[in-house]
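Attaching the record inline, Q. Sequence:
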Amino acid sequence: MTPAGLGMRRGALLSALLATALLAGCYETPLAPLDARLDNRLADVRLDPQALEASLNAYRAAHGLAPVRLDSQLTAMAQRQADAMVAGNALSHDVAGAFRARLAASGVEADEAGENLGAGYFSVDEAMEGWRGSAEHDANLRMAGATRIGVAIAKSPHTHYGVYWALELAADQHRPLDGLRIGAF
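Structure, as predicted:
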């Protein structure tokens, strides 16, 4: 083969390789678990809402605060938030919409409300420890006016953290929503 023929053949080969590389870049492979052990650990993760309620109430009592009770509206809101974080593979307060809008859409009326999110926690104790260790999250746990909570988790080994937590806290309503004090962390 002549040197010119080799050059043309190399050019065609390079073009074919480049086209293959470009096409391969468009193909998205499904996310795999970051760690093969994650599947087993996720299968063992359970949320016991009453255990979280008891843990939070013990913590609040130690700080001279009134107890909170589980609330079905806040629990449903928390589940939608946790599910949205898994679907979006994102630890984010806005993945399911703005907090105030989510409160209104859930029919939650409150003087004060807050949200704690977490990811990668494999137990209620880990979640509570993480939230107590963050000043902003801890402020929500110790929200003086809080009277009710909702908590939920969502899991998928095909996400960055595997398990996502949402804790919604709210006070009872005594004034219009436009005066709502929000703490979302």
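Strands lie at 69-70, 112-119, 146-155, 163-171, 181-184. Residues 2-8, 10-33 have pLDDT under 50 and may be disordered.

More tomorrow.
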